[in-house]
Amino acid sequence: MGRTDEAVAEGLQIAWAAARLAVKNVILVETLAQGADFIPDAVAATAREVLVGLADEQDAAGERARHQRKKAWGRFSDPDGTHDYRDRDTRNLRRRQKQYEGVARALRGYAADPGTVMRLVEDARESAWADVAGNLSWRLEAEGMRPDADPEYSAMRDARMSAVALIDLQRLEARQRKLGHLPAE
Questions:
Q1: 178: which of 3, 72, 84, 143 lies 20 to 30 Å off by Cα?
Q2: What is the mean pLDDT of the chain?
Q3: Are residues 119 and 176 in the same domain?
């Protein structure tokens, strides 16, 4: 595998992780926040849009590299900064352009393949469930903790009671005033 192929493979791994995160967030918002049912085919449409959007970003980056390469061609002076390319950079810029184009092409292929799209949806669903399960487990452990099962209960009791007095009771009072259950100050 050549350097370009390796860079494309790495770019695809990064893009896949970004796509999974984006689709996972859609699943969490729609199912938890909005109370919608999880319908894989509906999420698949979003997954395709995410993949195409990422491919568009890669195409734009490839176009930028192409433009930078053309601008750098024939310039032999010292650069003024990091992105002030010169003729000696054109080979690297051409390689970058090919890498961006390779990632974009592969992402468009992913978006066109229903099996790959459903694999992305499933990866995102599993990731969303792992987040939910982790949060539920933590909440059950934290909120269901009995004083006799927590070795730090006595040491942390004063801090918890201060938090109740300084934060929770003030929020409760403000909420009750807002609802009209307490007179305004």
A1: 143
A2: 89
A3: no
- Please check whether residues 110 and 180 belong to one and the same domain: no
- Cα separation, 78 vs 93, in Å, equals 17
- Three-class HEC string of the chain: CCHHHHHHHHHHHHHHHHHHHHHHHHHHHHHHHCCCCCCHHHHHHHHHHHHHHHHHHHHHHHHHHHHHHHHHCCCCCCCCCCCCCCHHHHHHHHHHHHHHHHHHHHHHHHHHCHHHHHHHHHHHHHHHHHHHHHHHHHHHHHHCCCHHHCCCHHHHHHHHHHHHHHHHHHHHHHHHHHCCCCCCC
Domain limits for position 158: 153-185
Residue 2 scores a pLDDT above 80: no
- Name the residue with tokens 């059950």: 140
Q: Using CA of residue 165, residue 167, residue 171, residue 177, what is the dihedral sign? A: positive
Q: In terms of Cα–Cα distance, which of 83, 61, 63 is closest to 72? A: 83
